[in-house]
Design brief:
Elements: E1 21-23, E2 30-32, H1 37-40, E3 47-48, E4 52-56, H2 63-77, E5 81-85, E6 97-100, H3 110-113, E7 136-139, H4 148-151, E8 156-158, H5 161-167, H6 173-188, E9 199-203, H7 206-209, H8 219-234, E10 238-244, H9 249-254, E11 257-263, E12 273-279, E13 295-301, E14 306-311
Parallel strand pairs: 4-10, 4-11, 5-8, 5-9, 9-10
Antiparallel strand pairs: 1-2, 2-3, 6-7, 11-12, 12-13, 13-14
Helix pairs in contact: 6-8
Keywords: Cytoplasm, Nucleus, tRNA processing
Protein name: Elongator complex protein 4
Biased composition (Polar residues): 330-341
Length: 341
């Protein structure tokens, strides 16, 4: 006998959610989009408020920066405040603008509409979730800037290396960054605040930004930073995306969502990179979201200049009722009476 539990969801019509957020299907998590709708479908519908996402960078690509830029642009359009920490370049420069196609059915890939002739039993299986084919996306190569009236409605906090040097602080940059985030999250974006405003934190190449000449191994510093940052996020109205160029199981234990980017080296391949999901959130539920596959292909739609995440591997059909030709034929050595050449 199976026993199922279903949470009784009260009416949320009288609850005013912060802009750019929504409740998940169970009504237990407050979600916000990453800026890439196809990526949202693989992580349970979006980023939970108070969560931490880690992206393992590919050293030969700036794909992680593109994801971070879409994340920041989504915040501006949803009136979310931003907090940036970067050493390579400023992610807020030339942010992609939101574009909308005339029709949600146009500008699709030709191979999506082409009828399968060999693997015909997969014909009715969609490679992209229906919500990922949204006609709204961010143009990564757009030369049109984001309207100033949208930028003026939010606050953009920048914690740069120059600010750290000018402060002449005796703390390491790791402690300086953590102290600045603690002050920001505690005073302005606490979950107990009357005005509910969302903060989006983007930290680029965290391992480089935490480098300290005084220590030969800064793995412990990274672990301590992530540990304290996760505690701050849990009690605040904020989300955080961090890109890393170092991979460690210790970091994965502290993050809610983890995935790794790998550039595609296959010749004549439609995918520009692959995304391997490592960890998904397990917040406020005993049955977490599990995607169809943990291996994702990333395509760059040239005519739309945006990124699309889709599953590139289809599991084999091992069911007994799988359609197969000549199912009733016996495997014997006796010659058949009817020979069909």
């Amino acid at each position: 006998m199976s026993i199922t539990f279903k949470k009784k969801i009260s009416s949320t019509s009288n609850i005013r959610l912060p802009p750019g957020t929504r409740l998940n299907s169970n009504g237990t998590l407050l979600l916000t989009s990453t800026g890439i709708s196809s990526l949202d479908t693989f992580i349970g519908g979006g980023l939970p408020i108070g969560s931490l996402l880690l992206i393992y960078e590919d050293k030969n690509s700036n794909l992680s920066d593109s994801i971070l830029r879409c994340y920041l642009s989504e915040g501006i359009y949803n009136k979310h405040d931003l907090c940036i920490s970067a050493l390579r370049n400023d992610p807020t420069e030339n942010l992609p603008t939101k574009e909308e196609n005339l029709s949600s059915t146009e500008n699709r890939l030709d191979d999506e509409n082409e009828k399968m002739k060999i693997a015909w039993r997969y014909e009715n299986l969609s490679t992209i979730d229906s919500s990922s084919t949204s006609n709204i996306h961010y143009d990564l190569q757009s030369t049109k800037p984001i309207p100033n009236d949208l930028i003026e409605q939010i606050k953009i906090h920048k914690i740069t290396w120059n600010d750290y040097q000018q402060s002449q602080s005796t703390l390491s940059y790791r402690n300086y960054l953590l102290k600045s985030l603690q002050k920001l999250l505690t005073n302005d974006y606490s979950s107990q605040q009357t005005e509910k405003r969302i903060l989006r934190i983007g930290i680029q190449s965290l391992s480089l930004s935490l480098f300290d000449d005084k220590t030969s191994n800064h793995t412990d510093e990274l672990f301590a930073f992530l540990y304290h940052l996760r505690i701050l996020l849990r009690t605040s109205l904020a989300t955080c995306i961090i890109t890393l160029n170092e991979k460690s199981k210790l970091f994965e234990t502290l993050a809610d969502i983890v995935f790794e980017l790998k550039i595609s080296n296959l010749i004549h391949n439609d995918y520009v990179a692959f995304c391997q999901l490592i960890k998904l959130p397990r917040l406020n539920t005993i049955q977490p979201f599990i995607p169809d596959t943990w291996d994702i292909g990333i395509k760059l739609i040239k005519h739309r200049k945006n990124l699309v995440f889709e599953k590139y591997s289809i599991p084999p059909d091992l069911s007994e009722d799988a359609s197969r030709d000549d199912k009733n034929k016996s495997l014997t050595c006796t010659p058949s009476k009817q020979l069909d050449f």
